[in-house]
Fold these 2 entries.
Entry 1:
Amino acid sequence: MPRSLRQSKILELITTREIEKQEELVTLLRESNFDITQATISRDIKELGLIKILTEDKKYKYACIDATEQAFSNKYINIFKEAVINLKIINNIVLIKTINGLASAVNSFLDKLGVENSLGSTFGNDTVTIYFENDVKANIACHSLNKIIYG
Amino acid sequence: MPRSLRQSKILELITTREIEKQEELVTLLRESNFDITQATISRDIKELGLIKILTEDKKYKYACIDATEQAFSNKYINIFKEAVINLKIINNIVLIKTINGLASAVNSFLDKLGVENSLGSTFGNDTVTIYFENDVKANIACHSLNKIIYG
DNA sequence: GAAGATTTTGCATAAATATGCAAAGAAATT
DNA sequence: AATTTCTTTGCATATTTATGCAAAATCTTC
């Protein structure tokens, strides 16, 4: 499994759960068939620039330092690129096919990115759906996403 | 030496230097006659909610987190900056001197901003007073306000 | 597709941080 | 001011994280 997919999964995990320590990530990633050790997680975390912050109940958890800013960094975009298989426009919706299990990560990336004119989105396991008012707006959005992914 | 003074010193140190580890704080604090161990620093850091972030050169350093900073648009912040002349901590209160007549504006800005741990505030013509439970909380708030205003 | 260069990883362990517990210190209460 | 209660601290150590180094995997170039 490629590195960037693993890192993508890490981003997903820390945004959807309260991860207190790296060993937890090791366990969770193993459940998703990333066979990996704590040492690698440590390196990933440094590379992604993740931080530990305090939760309500005074426990530490991993978090992204500044969601919006980092969403645009090349590193994140590369991960996004790898997770996406293809984009399709179906009338007023854009349908994004992703690598299995990464739809939620792609969805949250898109949230941070703020797709323009989006009415909202849903996601399953390997598919993200973004809704627009009409075909034209879906088209425009699809083009700009394509541009991000393919140049 | 009181705890709050020490924690205030910690805030000062991490904002003026790049502190990579707690042992560095121990050394620096000892130079300022705070006779203290790493264990205590660890607890202070947790209490102050400090985090470790990556610097340019991929080293970790301690920093203040401030969710507040992102919360407000630059426009409002600029107005706020211009209105404020200076901040002072007096025990458990933060005293804000403003341009004449703007205390109420600054006060309502702060209300929206939601100064953390604030017990409440009052204002006159050119002064806003924010009340806190104790010196530490006043200190933390003052630092984060300073950060908004001066960097 | 072999040979060499580069990147990524695991292992073992070093380095850094957090914490249980007992004791010292403050504060409150009588 | 003695007694009780609550807070803060150090010590020792457990827990967590980072990293040097060699091996494995991946990528280049011929």
Entry 2:
Amino acid sequence: MTELSLNMDEYLPLRDVVFHTLRRAILTGQLKPGERLMEIHLAQKLGVSRTPVREAIHKLELEGLVTMMPRRGAQVAQISEKGLKDVLEVRRALDAFCAELACERITPKEEEELKKACREFEEAVKIGDPTLIATKDVAFHDIIINSTGNERLISTINNLAEQIYRYRFEYIKDASQRPRLMEEHRTLLDAILNKDSARAGKAARIHIDNQEISILSQIYPEG
Amino acid sequence: MTELSLNMDEYLPLRDVVFHTLRRAILTGQLKPGERLMEIHLAQKLGVSRTPVREAIHKLELEGLVTMMPRRGAQVAQISEKGLKDVLEVRRALDAFCAELACERITPKEEEELKKACREFEEAVKIGDPTLIATKDVAFHDIIINSTGNERLISTINNLAEQIYRYRFEYIKDASQRPRLMEEHRTLLDAILNKDSARAGKAARIHIDNQEISILSQIYPEG
DNA sequence: ATTCTGTATGTTGTATACAATATTCTTTAA
DNA sequence: TTAAAGAATATTGTATACAACATACAGAAT
């Protein structure tokens, strides 16, 4: 009966296709902060009607990637220095919390995955490709976050991460930061493997602290 | 020139009117978990077209109050025991964080407001009206949360609070819990006024712990 | 030159129409 | 009686039309 079970769940509403397209464009910087998003133009460009474009833009607004003024349309969200600090402050608290929970809840299988992810991150650093480094960095942290088993926590952190993705990538491109990044990952890995939640939490906090300093100094050199 | 400055910013898109209407209906239990939300019916009931109803439903989905299946419509979100625990786990961490931050950042003016809110909560308990108690309870916590000055933190916590609003109200109606609630508020107030962040954080955590125990035992009496 | 006003244009907000898919009910066959 | 199939209905997804408002620009009055 299920020999040829081609997946019938592959349907994606157009609004979601548009949403993912625009989201990627924003996160990769193709659409720059402050740029206006006009429904008709985007609809024509993407070959759909205004309706799915509207719905996608609204979704992006609720995710915080787009800001809207009633009757004046939408634009790619600008993040202020204060906004960035606010996001990072919440992330620091939640990342530390994740690290502490991970000490209690991580499974042996996930421990192996985490070790592997740590190794692969270091290899990526050796290779030196920023995109690869960013990918492996995300993978490492995702294992920790997912090991908490708390879906609400996971989605909350992912939303925060999305807010600063654009700026974080600049941070990763700065090669001088990478040895420190590696060191911090190792400390965090070691603390989690030893179920030392105090040290794990502290390591996670320091990790974000350094990110914050670096990102802020790049975006707001005077501040 | 500004003698007669009638407010021109009063315009609210219909989608937001519908959104607030539906949101309130869900939070107050008029629309019950699992109930289907059908665009045409709601549109007719509210005297608008499908478009603003659709947009309002999508907004509710992103806020987590509604779940959608593509091409099958939306229904009021059901929260599972796991989902409730997950929300409360994140809230506990963030509420504790807020309490700690409040110790550092609360202004003298906010301190007075907090004292007043604490008193008013106790008066509400004496009067015994659940709705009033709930309102004063929210007001007390809002002062603490707002005193952090971190907008992202504020909106994140408010979203979490919204998820459990329906169940929390049942908790407040349980009169046997109220003396404990008052005691916990006093402890939290005292810790913040004395800038004792460790104690404030601990008090916030205990506060949520008790909520969790009480809410869970009411919704899932066997669990 | 500057400010105000009116008009033309562009954009969003809402309503509606049509298409595609889900659901329900009836009918038919075993 | 039950199960399956098919038609009828309901509902969502998308496109388009129209109205309301915002913006930009040109011209007139000061």
